[in-house]
Structures are given as structure tokens and as C-alpha cells.
Write a structure and sequence with these properties.
The protein is built from 1 helix and 16 strands. A hairpin with a 6-residue loop joins strand 3 and strand 4. It is mostly beta strands. The chain starts with a helix and ends in an 11-residue tail after the last strand.
């Protein structure tokens, strides 16, 4: 609850730092210690203290950098950027520095989690794109290396549980802006049990459930 309150407060504070005509602050992410928030503003990654001070611009690029995800130790921020024509996953030191490109595939990669083991989880369409509409869930070492498919099902928005035993994910292919749609493509939340190698559906709402 304290983190949710801090996230709401810092979002309001960071908005006030900019012109009232440009309050376009997106995808805020609270640091593990609850003291700093990372966010996207006008296509770059920024950080600011929870009291609205110490504003820092971490990336400066004509491409669109978005969706910051903190490492568990708070030293690194992962994000995605279309610097080479499609979204790839990058990392940057949370205090600033030169971003490092982690993925190099021609498909769009969207980072969703940064595990305590130093791995990045991301959505992509590499293996099943010829037969499936939905993306797949892959992982890669945050220092770089070869990505591997993490789950044997399609899905996205994957988050590893704090105890490392489960993966929450979204399944479904309907666009979230189709609010009135009710059908087999609805998005639902699923849970993968790593130890038992089993999947269970957590939601069955006839609308859209997503972003666990």
C-alpha cells in the first residue's frame, strides 16, 4: 500500500515539473527501495526522487524509449526502444550512462520483468509467428546473450512471482481498445506453476483482463 501511495504521489509530482500543456508522463515504475521513480516522457527515460526532486534524463535519442523496468538491486533499468526500426530491449545504469542493446531480432521485443537472477523477460514473435497471432514469452541474460523461449505457450505481460515459483501472464489476442468485445479472443490472466509445469486460468471475465 505504501508503494502504491508513493507511486501515485510521485506521478503527480513529476507531472507538475513539466508544462501543463505537456503532462505526457507514461509507464511510471517505482524503484525497489521505493525512493525513485522511472518513467517515459516524450520518448526518453527519466528518473525523479519520490519528493519530486533530482530529476534526471537517462536517455537522449531521437528514437522512442519506453517502459522502464528496474532491476531488483535498483542499479539498472531495462527499457525498450525502436532505435533500429523495431523495438529491442536495452539496459542503462539507473544513475546514467550509455544504454546497452540486449536483443537484436527483427521482431518487436517488449520487456515485462527483471528477475532477481538477472534475467529479462520480454514479449516477442519469433517462433510461432507463422501460425499464431499472439506473441511468445522469452528471457535473456541482462548482460547480454542468446534469448530463449521461456514458456511453451503463447502469451505476454509475463511477471515472475516474488518467490520465483510462478509466472503470471496474459493470454488472448483481442485489442484492449475493443471494450465492448466479448468472445474467444478476450484477454485473461493465467498462472504458470514452474515446479509442476502446469497452467491455470485465473480470470474468466467476458471482457478484457490484462497486465498482471
Amino acid at each position: 500500500m505504501k508503494k502504491l501511495y508513493a507511486l501515485a504521489v510521485v506521478t503527480l509530482l513529476t507531472t507538475s515539473l513539466f508544462s501543463q500543456n505537456n503532462p505526457l508522463i507514461n509507464t511510471p515504475a517505482l524503484s525497489p527501495n521505493g525512493q525513485t521513480i522511472a518513467f517515459n516522457y516524450q520518448g526518453d527515460i527519466w528518473t525523479v526522487s519520490k519528493n519530486g526532486q533530482n530529476l534526471k534524463r537517462l536517455t537522449i535519442h531521437e528514437a522512442y524509449d519506453a517502459n522502464p523496468i528496474w532491476s531488483k538491486d535498483g542499479k539498472t533499468i531495462a527499457f525498450q526502444s525502436d532505435r533500429y526500426g523495431n523495438n529491442d530491449v536495452y539496459t542503462v545504469n539507473s544513475e546514467g550512462g550509455t544504454p546497452k542493446r540486449i536483443t537484436f531480432h527483427s521482431s518487436n521485443d517488449a520487456v515485462t520483468d527483471f528477475t532477481s537472477e538477472g534475467k529479462l523477460i520480454f514479449n516477442t514473435s519469433r517462433n510461432f509467428v507463422q501460425v499464431e497471432r499472439a506473441p511468445e514469452i522469452h528471457s535473456v541474460n541482462a548482460k547480454g546473450g542468446t534469448p530463449f523461449r521461456m514458456l511453451n505457450t503463447v502469451g505476454f505481460d509475463a511477471k515472475l512471482s516474488p518467490n520465483g515459483k510462478f509466472v503470471a501472464l496474459t493470454k488472448g489476442t483481442c485489442r484492449i481498445d475493443r471494450e465492448a468485445y466479448q468472445g474467444p479472443a478476450n484477454r485473461d490472466i493465467w498462472l504458470y506453476n514452474i515446479e509442476n509445469d502446469t497452467y491455470s486460468q485465473l480470470t474468466n471475465f467476458q471482457g478484457q483482463d490484462f497486465s498482471p
